[in-house]
Amino acid sequence: MFRRNRFLHWNSHPFLTMRGTQNQISIVIWLTFFLAGLPSIFFGQFSNDSLLATFRSIDNDSIRIDSMFKVANELAYADPSQGIWLSEQAEADPWSLGNLRIRANGLNMRGSIYYLLKINDLAMLNFMESLKISDSADYELGRAHAWDNIGTIQENQNQYEEALESYRNARSTYLKLGRRKHAFRTLANIALIYQDLKQYDKAIEICDSVLLEIEDPNDALGYGMAYHVLGHIYQDKEDYPQALNYFNLAIEKYDKLDDKISQAELLIDRALVKNEMKMNDEALENANLALQIAQEFGAKPSIVLCYNTLAEIYKDRGDARLALEWMEKSKALSDSLQSEENETDLANYQALYEVNQKDAEIDLLSKDKEIQAAKLINVWYLFGLVSVVLLAMVSVVVILVRNNKARRRINLELQGKNEQILAQHEQISQQNAALTDHNEQLNNLNHEMSGLLHVVAHDLKAPLNQVTGLLSVVEEEGNLNPTQEKMLSMAKKVTNNAGNLVKDLVELGSAEQQAAQLQKVPVPLTALVAEVAAAFSAEAARKSIEIHTALPEDEALCMTESYQMRRVLENLLSNALKFSPSGKTVQISLTQSAGVHRIAIQDQGPGISAADQKNLYRKFHKLSARPTGGESSSGLGLAIVKSLVEQLGGEIALTSEVGLGSTFVVSIPANEK
Question: What is the mean pLDDT of the chain?
Answer without folding.
Answer: 77
